[in-house]
């Protein structure tokens, strides 16, 4: 027996089913945020959950496929696949290392994921949207900071930060709650953190 590598890509039936389910969960989260007119996106719950269950590569695949599908109706989503891949990778790594094993750790992980998303999305926002996020609260802050500092980079960074950090914090907490509520036999289908039988 040996411990399965964090980077093992075991595309079992369970993993292959998990990816479209994750995309569907992402869509439901995004739709819910829009219906409730929340100043958040909530469109990466499935990606985070897939990374917790299947590891960083499965999480990254779920995130990328999610944005590719969105991209057919909103082409700019193709670009933000980079951010979704980074979220999947970061969550998968943190979970594998045991940094998302309690509510307290999930809060810290959510803040870290929010910062990761902010750092990657800010240059994309500047390149494609003049620095804005399209979020009402964030863009209001963008306009205020830009008017007072004349710094597009600072305005864009803070615009993304005030939306991404609370969004990813809530997403990680929701995902962790779902994970804890899953039946043990479902979690064991993926079992990235435990020892597995091998033939060598």
Features:
mainly alpha; two-stranded antiparallel ribbon; 8 helices; disordered C terminus
Helix and strand topology:
Elements: E1 2-3, H1 13-35, H2 45-54, H3 56-71, H4 81-96, H5 103-129, H6 136-149, H7 152-181, H8 184-187, E2 195-196
Antiparallel strand pairs: 1-2
Entry summary:
The protein is mainly alpha-helical and 200 residues long. The chain has helices spanning 13-35, 45-54, 56-71, 81-96, 103-129, 136-149, 152-181, 184-187, and strands at residues 2-3, 195-196. The protein has a two-stranded antiparallel sheet.
| CATH structural class of the domain at 12-124 and 167-192 | Mainly Alpha
**pLDDT average, as an integer?**
90
Placed side by side, the strands forming the largest sheet appear as 1-2
Largest sheet descriptor: 2 strands, antiparallel
Shape: globular
What's the β-strand tally? 2
- End-to-end C-alpha gap: 9 Å
Structural write-up:
With 200 residues, the protein is mainly alpha-helical. 70% of the residues lie in helices and 2% in strands. It has a domain at 12-124 and 167-192: Arp2/3 complex 21 kDa subunit ARPC3.
């Amino acid at each position: 027996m040996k411990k399965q590598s964090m980077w093992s890509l075991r595309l079992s039936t369970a993993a292959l089913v998990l990816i479209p389910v994750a995309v569907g969960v992402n869509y439901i989260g995004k739709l819910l945020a829009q219906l409730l007119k929340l100043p958040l996106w909530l469109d990466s719950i499935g990606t985070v959950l897939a990374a917790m269950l299947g590891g960083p590569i499965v999480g990254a695949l779920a995130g990328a496929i999610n944005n590719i599908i969105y991209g057919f109706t909103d082409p700019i989503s193709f670009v933000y696949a980079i951010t979704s891949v980074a979220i999947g990778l970061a969550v998968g790594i943190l979970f594998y290392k045991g940094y998302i094993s309690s509510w307290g750790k999930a809060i810290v992980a959510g803040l870290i994921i929010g910062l990761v998303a902010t750092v990657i999305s800010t240059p994309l926002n500047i390149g494609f949207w003049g620095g804005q996020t399209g979020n009402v609260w964030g863009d209001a802050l963008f306009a205020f900071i830009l008017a007072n500092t004349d710094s597009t980079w600072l305005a864009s960074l803070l615009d993304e930060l005030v939306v991404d950090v609370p969004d990813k914090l809530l997403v990680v907490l929701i995902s962790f709650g779902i994970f804890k509520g899953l039946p043990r036999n479902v979690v064991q289908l993926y079992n990235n953190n435990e020892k597995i039988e091998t033939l060598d």
